[in-house]
TrEMBL record:
Domain remark in the UniProt entry: The last Arg residue of the ACP-binding site is essential for the weak association between ACP/AcpP and FabH.
UniProt region (ACP-binding), positions on chain: 238-242
Annotated ranges, domain Beta-ketoacyl-[acyl-carrier-protein] synthase III C-terminal: 221-310
Claim: Transmembrane is one of the keywords in the record: yes
Binding partners and assembly: Homodimer.
Name of the protein this chain belongs to: Beta-ketoacyl-[acyl-carrier-protein] synthase III
Family matches, as InterPro entries: ACP_syn_III_C, ACP_syn_III_N, FabH, Thiolase-like
SUPFAM superfamilies assigned: Thiolase-like (SSF53901)
The organism's place on the tree of life at top rank: Bacteria
Beta-ketoacyl-[acyl-carrier-protein] synthase III N-terminal domain location: 106-184
Length: 312
């Protein structure tokens, strides 16, 4: 048996803010944002909608897709850097709200790489036989940590949630390899400041991202005993189209073999890879048996890649 994903869920808040609308309250312009980042719009949660609310929507859909009841979930892992509060964790709130009364629950903080760390952690529990079903959620309400006076960061991020249920799948499907890493010495390039706003050295993060996404993706392919020609589809963290294209080029993949949802949602940090996976499975771009490379990077600094054969 393999270990893979048996159900996905997604939620983006109703309020969509285009670049042109952002121009009204940030000193920026649509042309700059589109050409430098690929972002055209993002969604912002309502004032009375917190991170856990987004997570709960995505979790419920993943349960439905997996045809599982909440009682069958053994663990809830929530990857986020924008929890409702330090504790109880978002995972504790989700566990209660969905009625996962048999589940352990915890949050995980690895910034935009959070979903990768969450999936790999879930995989270990299922592979050892300790647990049957682990619900992994990547969720952010980044709008609450954006400084709209700071155009370097205010234009980049959005809110959203994605969820995946990790369980046993058929032989020949599921996780083949992973690569996780971190370099705390780069923490100073991307962090939450004393005012609880995101601060970023864009150029340093850009250089780090281009290097690490490509290297981590190549490492995971090698660990899986495959060649880059074997990869059917790339799902990179959706932070900047230029960074994503650099990773795609390292793998020698054409444009249509890379997931692109950044124009719709902006950078949703821990939610981004799951949102992309969800949309591309729903639209039929990802098919049963496809060899996927999921790869992300983020604050920490952190990075991670997974080689996954899609299907259950
Ligand atoms: N709107 C309009 N102009 C802007 C702007 C905005 N939102 N943000 C910056 N500018 C201006 C700058 O002030 C600068 O003007 P100047 O030359 O007169 O000083 C100019 O645009 C160029 O800025 P620069 O920082 O060199 O742009 P860039 O090409 O490096 O792109 C980023 C900036 C942020 C898009 C890019 O560095 C990036 O994507 N970095 C990685 C960020 C990332 O992925 N973060 C998430 C990690 S999970």
């Amino acid at each position: 048996m393999g270990v893979g994903i048996i159900g996905l869920g997604k939620y983006v808040p109703a309020k969509k803010v285009t670049n042109v609308e952002l121009e009204k309250f940030v000193d920026t312009d649509d042309e700059w944002i589109r050409t430098r980042t690929g972002i055209e719009a993002r969604h912002f949660a309502a004032d009375d909608e917190d991170t856990s609310d987004l997570a709960i929507h995505a979790a419920k859909e993943a349960l439905q897709q997996a045809a599982l009841s909440a009682e069958q979930i053994d663990m809830v892992i929530v990857a986020t850097v924008t929890p409702d509060q330090a504790f109880p964790s978002v995972a504790n709130i989700v566990q209660d709200a969905i009625g996962a009364k048999n589940a352990a629950s915890m949050d995980m903080s690895a910034a935009c790489t959070g979903f990768m760390y969450g999936l790999v952690t879930a995989q270990q529990f299922v592979q050892t036989g300790a647990y049957n079903n682990v619900l992994v959620i990547g969720v952010e309400k980044l709008s609450k940590v954006l400084d709209f006076e700071n155009r370097n960061t205010a234009v980049l991020f959005g809110d959203g949630a994605s969820a995946a249920i990790v369980s046993n799948v058929a032989e020949g499907r599921g996780f083949l390899a992973f690569d996780l890493g971190s370099d705390g010495s780069g923490g100073k390039h991307l962090f939450l400041n004393d005012q609880r706003h995101i601060e970023m050295n864009g150029r340093e993060v850009f250089k780090f991202a281009v290097r690490t996404m490509g290297e981590s993706a190549l490492r995971v392919i090698e660990k899986a005993g495959l060649q880059k020609e074997d990869v059917d589809y790339l799902i990179p963290h959706q932070a900047n189209i230029r960074i994503m294209d650099a990773a795609r080029t390292r793998l020698g993949l054409p444009e249509e073999k890379m997931s692109k949802t950044i124009h719709l949602y902006g950078n949703t940090s821990a939610a981004s890879i799951g949102l992309s996976l969800y949309d591309d499975v729903a639209s039929g771009k990802i098919k049963d048996g496809d060899k996927l490379v999921l790869v992300g990077f983020g604050g920490g600094l952190t990075w991670g890649a997974i080689l996954l054969i899609w299907g259950k």
